[in-house]
Amino acid sequence: MNGKSLKVTMLGNFSMEYDGETIRFERNNATKANQLLQILLCYRNGIARELLIQKLFGTEEIADASNSLRAVVFRLRRLFEQSGVLDEKAIRVRQGMYYFSPEAEVDCDIYRFEELVSEALAKTAELERYELLKQCCESYKGPFLPMLGSCEWTIAWNIKYKNMYFDCVRKVCAISRKYGDYETMLRVSEQAAALYPFDEWQSGQMEALVALGRVREASKLYEETGRFMFEELGVSLPAQMTEQMRELGKQVQNHTDTMEDVIKNLREAEEIQGAFFCAYPNFVESYRLVKRVIERTGQSAWLLLCTITDGRGYALEGGDRLELLAQEVDVAIRQALRRGDMYTRYSANQYLALMMELKQEDCRIVVERINACMERKSRKNYLSYHIAPINTVLGEAALCYDVWKNTWSDLTLSQINGTEVRRDGDSE
Predict the structure, then answer these.
(1) pTM surpassing 0.85?
(2) Which of 162, 184, 165, 163 is nearest to 173 (CA)?
(3) CATH classification of 109-253, choosing from 3.40.190.10, 1.25.40.10, 1.10.10.10, 3.30.360.10?
(4) How many alpha carbons lie under 13 Å from residue 221 in its C-beta half-sphere?
(5) pLDDT band per the 50, 70, 90 thresholds, residue 257
(6) Which long-range contacts link 169-174 to residues 24+ away (Cβ below 8 Å)?
(7) Which residue of 83, 272, 333, 413 is 20 to 30 Å from 307, comparing CA positions?
C-alpha cells in the first residue's frame, strides 16, 4: 500500500478513506461484503469460521453456509483489488480462522479509541489522566455502526463502546467538578446529551450552567428537557435536574440587576396567546403555590385532567395516532383556557390544567370549549375528563365527564383515583 493506510470509521457512521479520498466498496454499507470487513476489523486476532458464519448470516436460512461464506470472502477480495487500497491477500484463512493479514495497513477509529482509553486509565497522575480522558470523549463520534442497529452481532460491540464512553464522561465530569473546570464539564455533557438524549446527561449540562452562573441558559435547558422527556417517553425529569433547578435561585440571589432588567427577564413574549404551558416539574411548584394562596384568600381553583382514549374508554397507547391527537389536544387546551390558566403534558396520553377563579358550572363550559377547539368534532369522543377542586378534601365531590352519554356525574377523589373507565361501543 506504499505506506498509505485505509482509514475506517465505525463510531457514529461507517466510512472509509484512502490517500485523503473517501471510498465506498458498495453503495449500501450494510451489504454482506461490508459486514465481513467490519467483523474482521473488530476481531483483530481472528475469528473462527463457525462464529463468523453465525454473525454474518444470523438466523437466515441458507442451504450451504460454508459456500455462502466463501462467496462473500471472494466478493470482498475482489472489491479490495478493484479499489486498489488492499490486495486479495489482505484476508487470510488459516486453520479455520479468518483475519486480516498483519501486513494490511488499516487505521480504524475503534482501535484508536480503545488505545486512548487504556492509556488514560493507566495514568496515575490525575491531571494527565484528565487530559487523555477529554481526548477520549472528543474522539467518540456516536454509536457503533448505527446503520446496523438491528443486526444481532453489533449489539454487544455497541454496548461495549457506549459503556467505555459513558465511563470516560463520568470521570471527566468528576474531575471537572473537583477543579472547578465547568466549561469542560459543560462541553462534554452537551456532546453526551446530543448523542444519547435519553440517558440524563442533561443533568451534567445543568450543573455546569448553574455553576457558571448562566441562569437563563440553565432555565431554558430545564424547560426543553422537561418537554422532551414527556413528549418522547411520557416521564418526568430526573430528581437531580429538579434539585439543580432550585440551585438557580441561589444564583439569582447573587446576581445584581436593575428592576428594569428583572422585569424584562421575567416578562414572557406578548404574542403568546391562550393558556400558559410549562414542564411538569414547574407545574408542580405552581400548584403548590396556588394551593397555599387559596387557603389564605378563599379563591377557587380547579384541576382538569384530560385523557386521550381509543374511543372505547381505554387510554390510548403510543404510536402516530396518539401523537396526532396529543398535538391537537395541546392546541385545543391552549386556545380554550384563559391566559391566567396553565397546563402541562402529564403523561404520553394525558394533559393536566390548572384553572383559576372558576365556579363548578364553569368547568363544564371549559370542557365544551376544548372539544369545540378540536380540528374535528368527532375527536371529542376520544377525550375523557376528570375535574376536581384544588381545595378539596378526600371524599368531596368532583366531576367526571362521560363522553359516551355526554353527561356529567359526581365522583369522589377516591373514586377518581381508583376508577378505570372502560365501556364498549364504537367511536364516531
Answers:
(1) no
(2) 184
(3) 1.25.40.10
(4) 27
(5) low
(6) 169/137, 169/201, 169/204, 171/129, 171/133, 172/130, 172/133, 172/134, 172/137, 173/204
(7) 272
